[in-house]
Amino acid sequence: MDSFLVTSLVLTILAFTAIWLIHVPLRDAGIVDYYWGPGFAVVGWAGLAFGAEASAMKLLLIAAVSVWSVRLAAQLIMRHRLMPEEDARYASMRRAGGPQWWWQSLYKVFWLQAVILWIVATPVHAILAAPASAVLTHAGEFGLFLFVIGLLIETVADWQLYRHRRQGKSGRETLTGGLWAYSRHPNYFGEILLWFGIGLAAYDLSGLWWALAGPVVLALVIRFVSLPLTEKHLIASRADYAAYAARTPVLSPLPRARTLTTGPAE
């Protein structure tokens, strides 16, 4: 298993390097997001191909990750196709990086995401390391339940946002209905929930404590890196976002406070 940890890191870095080579003439770093979901499935199936012991439970868990990865990739591709230009996050980095950005992006965006993906994939690595005879207890079954709930939340939230964008409203009007009435980022909440679910199942199956390290890292990256950057962009680009943010929690799907009109969101 230790050797496959190195192998999976090398495979992931090579995959992101290939995507970087494709992005250079396109001048569109947003295509890196296409591989974020599938990268986890590749780690899982490659592990089995490289000799990890297979079992029905391992196949079930890796298949669950694969379903999530395909759904996420499809959603990100659809979102990207609706953008008139490069994702604002990467466009800002490109402007700041100047003429040297084309090669600096290799390690500042692509290799960085490769390493983060590899770390977040600890549940997948733990699943591969589990004995073939291992089965889930009630704790692992609860983890699978959390995974399904998180996947449903993320899927519904992304679909609502996609429909909002298709209507041409996303650039000028904040989505405040559906799940977005209870959280400013319900898709991120679903992502965190499903990864903690699969992490719990992986820990239950393998007994390896570091199965939960990836979900913790993912939650921290989302809460303290992705969300602040996204919030900063939305507040600067939408006149109605500040009022929406004042009455709606940033992440946890709590009921909207009907009487609260000012003050920071939790």
Polypeptide structure, described:
The structure is a single chain. By secondary structure, the protein is mainly alpha-helical. The chain has two domains: 135 residues, no CATH class; 131 residues, no CATH class. Helices cover 70% and strands 0% of the residues. It is built from ten helices and no strands. Helix 2 packs parallel to helix 6, helix 3 packs parallel to helix 7 and helix 6 packs parallel to helix 8. The longest helix has 29 residues. The protein is globular, with a radius of gyration of 19 Å. The termini are far apart.
Give the overall pLDDT as a whole number.
Answer: 91
Domain count: the total is 2
Shape: globular
Instruction: Note poorly predicted spans.
Output: 257-266
Measured between the Cα atoms of the first and last residue, the distance is 41 Å
Helical content band? 55-70%
What Rg is obtained from the alpha carbons, in whole angstroms?
19 Å
What is this structure's SSE topology?
Elements lengths: L1 H25 L9 H14 L6 H26 L6 H10 L3 H20 L1 H8 L8 H29 L19 H21 L6 H25 L3 H7 L19
Helix pairs in contact: 1-2, 1-5, 2-3, 2-6, 3-7, 4-5, 6-8, 7-8, 8-9
